[in-house]
Design goal:
With 197 residues, this protein is of the alpha+beta class. It has a single domain, classed as 2-Layer Sandwich (Ribosomal Protein S5, domain 2). 34% of the residues lie in helices and 30% in strands. It has four helices and ten strands. The strands form three sheets. A four-stranded mixed β-sheet has the order 1-2-4-3, covered by helices on one side. Strands 5-6-10-7 form a four-stranded mixed β-sheet, covered by helices on one side. Strands 8-9 form a two-stranded antiparallel sheet. Helix 1 runs parallel beside helix 4. The longest helix is centred in the last third of the chain and has 20 residues. The radius of gyration is 16 Å and the shape is globular. The model has no long low-confidence stretch (mean pLDDT 94).
Amino acid sequence: MSRTAKIDRQTAETKIRLELNLDGTGASTIATGVGFFDHMLTLFARHGAFDLTVEAQGDLHVDQHHTVEDVGICLGQAIKIALGDKAGIRRYGHFTLPMEETLVTTALDLSGRYYLVLNAPIPAPKIGDFDSELVEDFWQAVAANALMNLHVVLHYGRNSHHISEGIFKCAARALRMAVEHDPRMPGVPSTKGTLTG
């Protein structure tokens, strides 16, 4: 079965089209109007081996917040749709990733329940023209709409670009593990019999 999703979302603040294939090769076409964010989403697709297309038009004359958060909402919704009833997946994923002087660990559970713990302070308020606090806002939107537990820990790091990049790469690798097929568990990996929330 194809594990794909297409999301079209339009509000007074943003217009977004997003396509996701969980069983892709890491191909991506990203255009959000926010250069650093495009870079992070490209890394996410490549390290997750997800095919990802994102076209976003947002009110960037205000700031980047609505665009980044709304893309997070769409990505979370796409993950949830693409996973279906979650039968046969590993459900849990974790990864520890070095990025030069930075070390990040991510652990997640595709539990059907939302929770985010992001213990990863980014020292600089801006990375280029990108607001660093939007990293957390993005992952909160993803986790809330994918209905996952997501924990991110920055063990140490100095460079804000490296920290952000480490978070995106590490989350991608953990999600890649969680959505993989588990040949030893063909059904839904829960004693409740459901992971749909």
